[in-house]
Amino acid sequence: MFQSRTHNCNELRASNAGEKVTLCGWFENIRKVSKNLGFVVLRDFYGTTQIVIETEEMMNELNGLNTESTIQVTGEVRERSSKNANLPTGDIEVVPEKITVLGKCRYNELPFEINRSKEADENTRLKYRYLDLRNPAVKEKIVLRSRIVSELRSAMENEGFMEITTPILTSSSPEGARDYLVPSRLHPGEFYALPQAPQQFKQILMTAGFDRYFQIAPCFRDEDARADRSPGEFYQLDMEMSFASQEDVFEIIERVLPPVFARHGIYKKASDAPFKRIKYLDALDRYGTDKPDLRIDLISEDVTEVLSGCGFGPFEEGNTIKAVKVTGFEASRKAIDKIMAETEVISGNKACWFKVGENLEFTGGISKFLTERHDRLVEALSLKTGDFVAMAAGKINAARKTAGVLIKLLGAAAEGHMNKESYEFCWIVDFPMYEIGEESGELEFCHNPFSMPQGGLDALKNEDPLKILAYQYDLVCNGVELSSGAVRNHDPEIMIEAFKLVGLGEEDVKKKFPAMYNAFCYGAPPHAGIAPGVDRMIMLIAGEDSIREIIPFPMNKNAQDLMMGAPGEVDKRQLEDVHIAIDIKEDKADG
Questions:
Q1: What is the pTM of this model?
Q2: C-alpha distances out from residue 250 to 154, 339, 454, 473, Å
Q3: 3-state class (DSSP) for residue 27
């Protein structure tokens, strides 16, 4: 049966008074005044309309009907005597002559109140996501997502990019995370992998002569959830350009993203082009992180030479000492102790502090250890009365990380040091090509193995690998990494040399990346690209702390789809079709 409607529930106005209309939607609630007078809220995707029940007969139509049933209402529009200025339809109401039940809600109790679903336990919300999405506050984030994705597509097309979809079933590739594997029915013992990114395909498209590619690309990585990362799948604005430099990529992103953030974001200001460029090592030194939040005006300064060996234990010889100066920070001892404790929890390293009082006297915290270095420290940090200084010490990476946490916490706590009403973008550039792996202790790629080393083949053959920089870059907004990108290594000879340094020979490269390597041997154009995360962008634009709020059907923190029951068991025949036998070893710790 086809149900027609003349208007939606957000459409009728005073000018429609006297018209006969038909509305369809969800029976949200009813406020009964008497047995023949009641006020119904009818809700659909677009909004709500008040339905006034004025007869006992019509009241009987709704008696016993559970809320969230779908109904069709046909009746006359009239102007309300008591208007509701908070509703677009608040000037009118509909007096029904006929009510038809279209879809009955068979449960007397709902798992949560629809309009307050965000207050429910997250797993309950995800199990009943179809109810959660009926909440206008939840629904509007998904509508926002749709609008933003549409605008991104239009903006990329206006820049001359062509959208091309790449395969979902492909081969396993080392992208830094675990693959999702799909067993093959036709090729026993062999597996497809879901792509962690369309990296190789988009580079092959450049080699095939497609000058500018983009895609709202699904990516699949078997990694743990975080507030800004959904397990399983995510989407990115994947793009690649032929005959392009790093600056060409920057110019495109700087034209495409700020208008979208400014138009749809909770903050109406976004960085103008060009975005600030910060070298990777400079970012670590000045901000304590490669994801700096430039809304905060605090920086980390190195005072190792000034304070090393001053008598305070953590400032012993060999440790790096970082200081973060905050002007005009008036906080109680309790508030300071809370910041220091939170810093230790986040960074795993203790922080310390002191204040600058009258006549530049150091007070509080570790001030008693600084007496002999007073003048040098005042000069090094340009200290003035009223300044607050927080410090961190340890091995260089630990000191940097702790200083970065201090900047974030103090920037939020100290009045006037954080512009909270804007989106501040920056580029982190000049990443090291290689690093020593924490687990392996061996030389590894630092970022993307397909990146072009600065200095090319000569650098790979003649320089210390740990000093070689790459044409790699990250896009950061408000302390959140939105994307990594690079100028690609399109020369097979340079590629072989780059992989040789991490212990992979020419045959290994050909075996791991046969299509891309062979394609490059047929004359590849220089090319560069980037892939900002769509989910993270929308999370920032919407002002949400959890990425799951802007994904229509997210998994929970344990990578489970509670609504659909995934992952789940399959029957024996399905396993036999793909030549799989399950042999789950019991954990010895469990007996």
A1: 0.91
A2: 18, 37, 18, 10
A3: strand
